[in-house]
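At this stage, I wrote out one protein's amino acid sequence and its backbone structure tokens, and that material follows here:
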Amino acid sequence: MTALHQEHPAHAHVHGPACGHPSVVHGDHVDYAHDGHLHREHSGHWDECEPGEHIAHSGHAHEHSDSCGHPAVAHGDHVDYLHDGHRHAAHEGHWDDH
């Protein structure tokens, strides 16, 4: 999965384990979610971290909701649910890996 390189300008906040924003391991880095964006540190600045392709999460029988117990993170126009090292989002009758 490739991520688009889009720098998040004027991002003065430094993310880390104690910053208070939800984090999720994403390949070889960690994303931090806030303000409807997912950020990753890259070469001294913060990038928006978005997958470059659509990846359906097959075999995902669990239905996410406000009461499923997994952290919900606003992400643009939808909600991602974080668990098992993945970010899941509902999409046309299935769950996508983000």
Q: What stands out?
A: The chain has a mean pLDDT of 75.
